[in-house]
Amino acid sequence: MAITGGIFLRVSKALILLSIPALCVGGDAISPQIPSVESFVPSNGVFELPPIVHIVVDNEYASHGSPSLLDFAKVFQTDLEEAIPYVTNTTISLSPLDPDPTSDIPTIYLTINSSAQFTLYNGQPTDEGYQFEVTPDTYRITALAPIGVWWGTRTFLQQAAVDLAQGAKTVSFPAGQGVDSPGWEVRGFMLDAGRHWFEASFLGDLCIYASFFKLNELHLHASDNLWNPAFLYGEGNEGWEKLYAAFRFQPPAGSALDGLVPRKNESWTKQEFLDLQQTCASHGVTIIPEVDTPGHSLVITQWKPELMESGQPDHLNLSYPETIPTIKSIWDEFLPWFSAAEVSIGADEYDASLANDYISFVNEMSTYIGAQFNKSIRIWGTNEPSTTMSVSENITIQHWDFPGDDIPVQLLSQGYRVINSEQTFLYLDGKTSEDNQFPQQLSEDLLWSGAPGGKGWAPNIFSATDPTNNTTPDAPNLRGAIFALWNDWGNNATTALEIYYQLAKSVALFSEKAWAGSDVRATALTRDQFDTVYPALTAAAPGQNLNRVVKPKYGNVVYEFPGTYSTLSTEITSVGPPYTLSFSVKPDPRSPDTGLLFSGIDSKLHVANLTFEATGQLYALGYVLPTDKYTSVSIRATREYTYAVIDGDETNPRYWYTLMDIWGDYMALGNMSFAAPSHNIGGSGFSGEIRDIKLTLEGKQVAAILS
Q: How many Cβ atoms are within 10 Å of 240's Cβ, its own excluded?
């Protein structure tokens, strides 16, 4: 394959063709980053990264922190070997760094300086800052705490990825000294797992990906219900008992909370969640779990109807004697699972006429969770019109809506700590949104120039139209920002792969703004710089393969089996679009609707009605395969849709759709994008014949993968 007019970058799993301009930082040119590096002062020479890399961890601090400096070093070692193809061997050793050991091998040093000082924009100290000092012999990352060193290793890997993208055969770093630190403490994304089930492995991979761009929180909205007003608030409230609602933490066998989780196969066991938290923590990301009460509580009232507010089945009756003790019992069971110092109790969109009941509940839960488990709480912003009571200032308010909650600048002036999740800038919704209220990805126009004056969004920007509702980057109680991806239309609206497509670029763009802000640092990226460097960096993100990139066997062919088979296994577990999966099939007439044609880790294709299965949902094409002949099928997928061409009839493509209930108002069709189920051919009772099987990559993916 001949490609001209560009440069190959082979990173992790992908090959990118790029021309990346240099970024001027501190008077000299170094590689751009996402997020951008605060400052760099150049000196003479370069640090050449050899094929054999020596990583030295300061033994005085190796065990400091949790994860420890050594823990982070081990993950860095693995990432280095994955992200830089010519690195053939890495070693980690523990050694004192003062004085520096002499070595002929260029060495990466990781150390702690307990007297180092880094501050957020509001002047508060932070553990997340770091320094990097580069000489021809050493690349030293120094921080106040292990988490700062970890972010420094992300900068190292990003510099390496961009260097390779610019055509370098080996990686070199300009000598000099750099300093970097985030502008805000909270930089995260929220995923609605209450209305859409996600495997823990997928969430762990999302943490790993987000970590590469220095995001530090995954807010996990772990309980909720679909919203259908006719079922919830219609005459007689008929249907609420069967409306989809879920609680994702699975209580142990025999627990009094067992009835809270009717869908055991759509919940995380304690060990699964502990492992997930460990995966995220080992990459610098904290999971903030949310159990949403007293609104959005249908999963609780379906379990215990006596707790519901009259006429509103998804609201808890806070004056009923057993309601608050029941909520406390839920937290008693699951709070010991959670490693974060904070949790969210949701507490949004409750009955305004019960303001005092609401405020009393929120304050009581704050006191209880603090006293029993030494954790603080967050709530979604909700303006409850009480003239006699107020929410405790110990509680962080996560602003999301004008005018539905308190004005954030007023909250800040009153002493409340605030996180910006303003929906105008920071809300997404899975697959479709009523009247296109929310985009599929964060709006690049808004985030680059959506603030008054066109300076771009940052966590201190709450309004795109009214500057009086915005504050300054150094506002003392402004903690940062979290963008949110909701799943209002439930499990069947999207696959996990489609959710990743929504998040991938949004994570990177948000990370630049949440770390550096807008119009604060001279080194912040421009939109052109971001757009140029993003393809290389998203492809380089190590430790995961969320977009299911694979290396073709030859040309664009992943695999090809020209014979006839009833069962066959391959080494390819899943392939992301765009791809074409073609085959001919003749079902057994004795069991024409039994078994699988193909299966993989993300999807399955059933012979019955050519039905795709993904994320626990079934999507039937509605085509019945004849049993008296071979039928040729060509399945073609992009990130937006999947369709089949039957017996070569290109004029009649057949699409896989989903049907979504849009808040009980109307039904909407949506296209589905599936990963190729490439691991097993046949199975689960299939007894027919499949032949002439071929899986190929299509379009840009061919040019993006090493062939």
A: 23
